[in-house]
Amino acid sequence: MNDPTRYRVESYPLIVEQTVAWGDMDAHGHVNNVVYFRYMENARVEFYRQIGKYEFEKRTGVTLVVKSTGCRFVAPLSWPDRIAVGARVARLSDEGMLMQYLVVNAASSQVAALGEAEIVALKVADGTRIPFPQELRDRISEMQSTRPDPPRDPGKVIL
What we know:
By secondary structure, the protein is an alpha+beta fold. It has three helices and seven strands. Strands 1, 2, 3, 4, 5, 6 and 7 form a seven-stranded mixed sheet that branches.
């Protein structure tokens, strides 16, 4: 899949900005590969908050879980870099959604990593997989379609 918007932070409806912590680094002096998944998780949790996922879960007993995840590392990050993590839904169906992430060094605009997560819906009570809820599909579509076309100022959250 060759999508030129994949590498442009303005193509993501949600941007979470944060600073690399000293403890994020490993013995090689750069951010440890596991930490990138935490950065992506921060963006996913904020995305969920903005679509009302947590209230939906309390009301319906249906949650969203990560079925699989991956990351392609492009360039190193280190303390005290400031980063921007973009999140967007690239595919949405009854089966679930594919969330994509872009991790960028905010100062240099250098792409540091590309990630993704397959997310499915489950009943909290028994863990049964169910079709992805239409209500959440509608909220996600609305969130992503209400952003103006590029160039745009994506929604930002500062951590």
